[in-house]
Amino acid sequence: MVDQFTKRVGTVQRLGWYPIGSDPSIEMTNSWDKVTALGAVTDDGESFYCWTEDSLKTQHGLWLLKALQEEFGEELVVFLDRASYFYTRDLWEYVSGERATETVSDSSVACVRGEDLEVWYFPPKLPELNPVEGCWDRLQEWFKHRLVPDLSTLKHQIQRGLPTVEEPNIWNYLCP
């Protein structure tokens, strides 16, 4: 199971309680700088995380599949969401060696099978089916009260925050 999490450099705005008549203010920073983490969880609880500063494109989806094969072995079944960088003919061609794909009744791609790699897609607009989504909730909680003033701090905080994420039991998602 694979998913992604993007965190930008900047201040997170939150409501708060202040004395009547006070005029609280904080310095706000915002930036286009960001880090997108890609994470994968296996059926036996192993995990794989990597990140990039770039906006995700098809090349990142292909790179991730190759990295997963290197990390976990040649024969894999990977579950992906339908983000544009995963749900693309170039990725399907990499997996199967051809641009043809298996479809379901609404003509959307459900699965792409290759010799040593299968990619299955979650139905659209149902992130609750992907157990990695919960990992990102925990990582978001890690950032809750942390100021991220620049890109190097963001990278450092992601490295510190990832070990706090507990990998979910994906069998609860696959076999309800």
UniProtKB/TrEMBL annotation:
Sections of the chain in a coiled coil: none
Any GO MF annotation of the entry: nucleic acid binding
One Pfam family linked to the record: DDE_3
InterPro entries in alphabetical order: RNaseH_sf, Tc1-like_DDE_dom
Ranges for domain Tc1-like transposase DDE: 2-155
The name this protein goes by in its record: Tc1-like transposase DDE domain-containing protein
Species whose genome carries this gene: Halococcus salifodinae DSM 8989
